[in-house]
Amino acid sequence: MPEGPEIRRAADRLFKAVGHQPLEAVWFYPPALKARAPELVGCRITAIDTHGKAMLTRFDNGTTLYTHNQLYGVWQIARAGERPETKRSLRVVLETQDAAILLYSASDIALWKNADLARHPFLSRLGPDVLDKRLTAAAVARRLQEPRFLRMSLAALLLDQGFLAGMGNYLRSEVLFEAGIAPTRDAAGLSVDERNLLAKALLDVPRRSYRSRGIRKAAGMKADYITDTPDGFAFKAFDLAGEPCQDCGTVIRRRELAGRRLYDCPHCQQ
Question: pTM to 2 decimals?
Fold first, then answer.
Protein backbone atom coordinates (compact mmCIF):
# COMPACT_ATOMS: atom_id res chain seq x y z
CA MET A 1 0.00 0.00 0.00
CA PRO A 2 1.33 3.48 -0.78
CA GLU A 3 2.20 5.54 2.27
CA GLY A 4 1.57 9.19 3.03
CA PRO A 5 4.38 10.65 0.88
CA GLU A 6 3.35 8.66 -2.19
CA ILE A 7 -0.31 9.67 -1.83
CA ARG A 8 0.64 13.33 -1.39
CA ARG A 9 2.89 13.32 -4.48
CA ALA A 10 0.09 11.67 -6.46
CA ALA A 11 -2.35 14.37 -5.29
CA ASP A 12 0.09 17.06 -6.41
CA ARG A 13 0.32 15.54 -9.90
CA LEU A 14 -3.45 15.14 -10.23
CA PHE A 15 -4.15 18.73 -9.20
CA LYS A 16 -1.53 20.03 -11.62
CA ALA A 17 -3.37 18.22 -14.43
CA VAL A 18 -6.95 19.34 -13.71
CA GLY A 19 -6.98 21.91 -10.92
CA HIS A 20 -9.07 25.11 -11.28
CA GLN A 21 -10.45 24.03 -14.68
CA PRO A 22 -14.17 23.39 -15.26
CA LEU A 23 -15.08 19.72 -15.37
CA GLU A 24 -16.62 18.72 -18.71
CA ALA A 25 -17.26 15.08 -17.85
CA VAL A 26 -17.71 13.22 -14.58
CA TRP A 27 -18.36 9.50 -14.19
CA PHE A 28 -18.59 7.22 -11.17
CA TYR A 29 -18.80 3.44 -11.10
CA PRO A 30 -20.33 3.02 -7.60
CA PRO A 31 -24.11 2.92 -8.05
CA ALA A 32 -24.65 5.28 -5.11
CA LEU A 33 -22.62 7.97 -6.86
CA LYS A 34 -23.74 7.59 -10.48
CA ALA A 35 -26.75 9.87 -10.06
CA ARG A 36 -24.60 12.58 -8.49
CA ALA A 37 -22.11 12.87 -11.34
CA PRO A 38 -24.12 15.54 -13.23
CA GLU A 39 -24.01 17.93 -10.29
CA LEU A 40 -20.21 18.11 -10.63
CA VAL A 41 -20.14 18.93 -14.36
CA GLY A 42 -19.07 22.55 -14.69
CA CYS A 43 -17.53 22.59 -11.22
CA ARG A 44 -13.84 23.25 -10.65
CA ILE A 45 -11.47 21.30 -8.43
CA THR A 46 -10.12 23.80 -5.92
CA ALA A 47 -7.66 21.47 -4.17
CA ILE A 48 -6.64 17.84 -3.87
CA ASP A 49 -5.61 17.29 -0.27
CA THR A 50 -4.57 14.20 1.63
CA HIS A 51 -5.03 13.02 5.18
CA GLY A 52 -2.76 10.07 5.72
CA LYS A 53 -3.49 7.62 2.92
CA ALA A 54 -6.88 9.12 2.05
CA MET A 55 -7.26 11.60 -0.82
CA LEU A 56 -9.74 14.48 -0.67
CA THR A 57 -10.69 16.07 -3.99
CA ARG A 58 -12.44 19.35 -3.23
CA PHE A 59 -14.95 20.97 -5.59
CA ASP A 60 -16.15 24.56 -5.66
CA ASN A 61 -19.77 23.50 -4.99
CA GLY A 62 -19.05 22.65 -1.36
CA THR A 63 -18.48 18.91 -1.78
CA THR A 64 -15.44 16.67 -1.43
CA LEU A 65 -14.72 13.33 -3.08
CA TYR A 66 -13.15 10.96 -0.54
CA THR A 67 -11.08 8.11 -1.99
CA HIS A 68 -8.73 5.56 -0.46
CA ASN A 69 -6.49 3.48 -2.69
CA GLN A 70 -6.20 0.63 -0.17
CA LEU A 71 -4.05 -2.15 -1.68
CA TYR A 72 -4.98 -2.00 -5.33
CA GLY A 73 -6.28 1.45 -6.20
CA VAL A 74 -4.29 3.72 -8.49
CA TRP A 75 -4.86 7.12 -10.09
CA GLN A 76 -3.76 7.81 -13.65
CA ILE A 77 -3.64 10.94 -15.79
CA ALA A 78 -4.66 10.92 -19.45
CA ARG A 79 -5.55 13.34 -22.17
CA ALA A 80 -9.21 14.28 -22.33
CA GLY A 81 -11.21 11.52 -24.00
CA GLU A 82 -8.41 8.96 -23.75
CA ARG A 83 -8.34 5.90 -21.53
CA PRO A 84 -5.13 3.94 -20.90
CA GLU A 85 -5.05 0.27 -21.84
CA THR A 86 -5.28 -1.66 -18.58
CA LYS A 87 -6.96 -4.67 -17.03
CA ARG A 88 -7.87 -2.59 -14.00
CA SER A 89 -11.49 -1.61 -13.32
CA LEU A 90 -12.29 2.06 -13.85
CA ARG A 91 -14.04 3.65 -10.85
CA VAL A 92 -13.87 7.44 -11.25
CA VAL A 93 -13.42 9.87 -14.16
CA LEU A 94 -12.92 13.61 -13.64
CA GLU A 95 -12.26 15.25 -17.00
CA THR A 96 -11.56 18.81 -18.13
CA GLN A 97 -11.15 20.13 -21.66
CA ASP A 98 -7.51 19.04 -21.73
CA ALA A 99 -6.97 16.21 -19.25
CA ALA A 100 -8.64 13.49 -17.23
CA ILE A 101 -7.76 11.94 -13.90
CA LEU A 102 -8.88 8.35 -13.58
CA LEU A 103 -9.15 6.15 -10.50
CA TYR A 104 -8.83 2.41 -11.03
CA SER A 105 -9.50 -0.60 -8.79
CA ALA A 106 -10.35 1.33 -5.60
CA SER A 107 -13.52 0.47 -3.68
CA ASP A 108 -13.56 3.09 -0.90
CA ILE A 109 -15.14 6.07 -2.67
CA ALA A 110 -17.68 8.57 -1.36
CA LEU A 111 -18.94 12.08 -2.02
CA TRP A 112 -19.49 14.24 1.07
CA LYS A 113 -20.67 17.73 1.83
CA ASN A 114 -17.79 19.68 3.32
CA ALA A 115 -19.81 20.47 6.44
CA ASP A 116 -20.29 16.75 7.13
CA LEU A 117 -16.78 15.51 6.33
CA ALA A 118 -15.61 15.61 9.96
CA ARG A 119 -18.08 12.79 10.64
CA HIS A 120 -16.61 10.49 8.01
CA PRO A 121 -16.16 7.10 9.75
CA PHE A 122 -12.52 6.69 8.65
CA LEU A 123 -11.28 10.27 8.65
CA SER A 124 -12.74 10.95 12.10
CA ARG A 125 -10.52 8.22 13.59
CA LEU A 126 -7.25 9.43 12.10
CA GLY A 127 -4.50 11.12 14.05
CA PRO A 128 -2.63 14.19 12.78
CA ASP A 129 -1.04 13.87 9.34
CA VAL A 130 2.75 13.53 9.49
CA LEU A 131 3.02 15.81 6.43
CA ASP A 132 0.93 18.58 7.98
CA LYS A 133 3.29 21.55 8.29
CA ARG A 134 1.43 22.70 11.38
CA LEU A 135 2.34 19.53 13.26
CA THR A 136 5.44 20.01 15.45
CA ALA A 137 7.85 17.56 17.05
CA ALA A 138 6.78 18.87 20.46
CA ALA A 139 3.16 17.94 19.68
CA VAL A 140 4.23 14.45 18.55
CA ALA A 141 6.27 14.00 21.75
CA ARG A 142 3.21 14.90 23.80
CA ARG A 143 1.14 12.45 21.77
CA LEU A 144 3.61 9.69 22.62
CA GLN A 145 2.76 10.25 26.29
CA GLU A 146 -1.00 9.86 25.89
CA PRO A 147 -2.26 6.86 27.92
CA ARG A 148 -3.84 5.13 24.91
CA PHE A 149 -0.44 4.96 23.14
CA LEU A 150 2.02 4.49 26.03
CA ARG A 151 1.98 0.70 26.27
CA MET A 152 1.84 -0.21 22.59
CA SER A 153 5.05 -1.57 21.11
CA LEU A 154 6.58 0.99 18.80
CA ALA A 155 6.36 -1.56 15.98
CA ALA A 156 2.58 -1.50 16.34
CA LEU A 157 2.19 2.16 17.29
CA LEU A 158 3.91 3.44 14.16
CA LEU A 159 1.40 1.59 11.99
CA ASP A 160 -1.61 2.88 13.94
CA GLN A 161 -3.25 5.60 11.82
CA GLY A 162 -5.00 6.85 14.94
CA PHE A 163 -1.58 7.84 16.29
CA LEU A 164 -0.17 9.54 13.21
CA ALA A 165 -1.79 9.32 9.78
CA GLY A 166 0.35 8.58 6.75
CA MET A 167 2.85 6.29 8.42
CA GLY A 168 3.37 2.87 6.88
CA ASN A 169 5.71 -0.06 6.74
CA TYR A 170 8.80 1.36 5.07
CA LEU A 171 8.48 4.60 7.05
CA ARG A 172 8.23 2.59 10.29
CA SER A 173 11.59 0.91 9.74
CA GLU A 174 13.26 4.11 8.58
CA VAL A 175 11.94 6.26 11.46
CA LEU A 176 13.04 3.80 14.14
CA PHE A 177 16.45 3.41 12.51
CA GLU A 178 16.97 7.16 12.34
CA ALA A 179 15.93 7.54 15.99
CA GLY A 180 18.15 4.63 17.05
CA ILE A 181 15.34 2.93 18.96
CA ALA A 182 14.40 -0.75 18.97
CA PRO A 183 10.94 -1.54 17.60
CA THR A 184 10.05 -3.83 20.50
CA ARG A 185 10.14 -1.00 23.03
CA ASP A 186 7.11 1.06 24.02
CA ALA A 187 6.69 4.79 24.48
CA ALA A 188 6.40 4.43 28.26
CA GLY A 189 9.98 3.19 28.48
CA LEU A 190 11.56 6.01 26.47
CA SER A 191 13.72 8.61 28.14
CA VAL A 192 12.97 12.28 27.45
CA ASP A 193 15.84 12.43 24.95
CA GLU A 194 14.69 9.25 23.19
CA ARG A 195 11.13 10.48 23.01
CA ASN A 196 12.28 13.75 21.45
CA LEU A 197 14.50 11.92 18.96
CA LEU A 198 11.63 9.68 17.93
CA ALA A 199 9.20 12.60 17.63
CA LYS A 200 11.64 14.45 15.38
CA ALA A 201 12.24 11.38 13.19
CA LEU A 202 8.49 10.79 12.89
CA LEU A 203 8.25 14.12 11.07
CA ASP A 204 11.64 14.35 9.36
CA VAL A 205 11.60 10.97 7.60
CA PRO A 206 8.14 11.16 5.96
CA ARG A 207 8.71 14.78 4.95
CA ARG A 208 12.08 13.95 3.44
CA SER A 209 10.44 11.10 1.52
CA TYR A 210 7.72 13.45 0.26
CA ARG A 211 10.25 16.04 -0.94
CA SER A 212 12.04 13.39 -3.01
CA ARG A 213 10.83 12.49 -6.49
CA GLY A 214 10.16 8.97 -5.33
CA ILE A 215 12.02 6.04 -3.84
CA ARG A 216 15.32 4.88 -5.26
CA LYS A 217 15.15 1.46 -6.88
CA ALA A 218 14.20 -1.10 -4.24
CA ALA A 219 12.78 -4.60 -4.28
CA GLY A 220 9.10 -4.99 -3.52
CA MET A 221 8.11 -1.40 -4.35
CA LYS A 222 5.66 -0.61 -7.13
CA ALA A 223 7.16 1.03 -10.20
CA ASP A 224 4.85 4.02 -9.63
CA TYR A 225 6.84 4.93 -6.52
CA ILE A 226 10.35 4.37 -7.91
CA THR A 227 12.64 7.05 -9.32
CA ASP A 228 16.14 6.93 -10.78
CA THR A 229 16.96 10.52 -9.89
CA PRO A 230 19.86 11.21 -7.49
CA ASP A 231 17.55 12.94 -5.00
CA GLY A 232 15.28 9.90 -4.62
CA PHE A 233 14.54 8.64 -1.12
CA ALA A 234 17.10 5.97 -0.17
CA PHE A 235 16.37 3.29 2.40
CA LYS A 236 18.83 2.96 5.28
CA ALA A 237 17.19 -0.11 6.83
CA PHE A 238 14.00 -1.17 5.04
CA ASP A 239 14.46 -4.11 2.66
CA LEU A 240 18.19 -4.27 3.42
CA ALA A 241 18.29 -7.56 5.36
CA GLY A 242 21.76 -9.09 5.20
CA GLU A 243 23.41 -5.79 4.26
CA PRO A 244 25.81 -4.01 6.62
CA CYS A 245 24.41 -1.11 8.63
CA GLN A 246 25.75 2.11 7.13
CA ASP A 247 26.56 3.42 10.61
CA CYS A 248 28.20 0.47 12.38
CA GLY A 249 28.56 -2.39 9.88
CA THR A 250 26.32 -4.80 11.81
CA VAL A 251 24.12 -6.88 9.53
CA ILE A 252 20.59 -5.47 9.13
CA ARG A 253 17.97 -8.03 10.12
CA ARG A 254 14.41 -8.66 9.03
CA ARG A 255 11.70 -9.52 11.54
CA GLU A 256 7.93 -9.91 11.49
CA LEU A 257 6.51 -7.44 14.02
CA ALA A 258 2.90 -6.30 14.31
CA GLY A 259 2.09 -8.49 11.33
CA ARG A 260 4.46 -6.78 8.91
CA ARG A 261 8.09 -7.11 7.92
CA LEU A 262 10.43 -4.76 9.77
CA TYR A 263 14.15 -4.11 9.34
CA ASP A 264 16.48 -2.90 12.05
CA CYS A 265 20.07 -2.81 13.25
CA PRO A 266 20.61 -4.91 16.40
CA HIS A 267 23.55 -2.72 17.43
CA CYS A 268 22.37 0.83 16.67
CA GLN A 269 18.77 0.42 17.80
CA GLN A 270 18.54 -0.15 21.53
Answer: 0.92
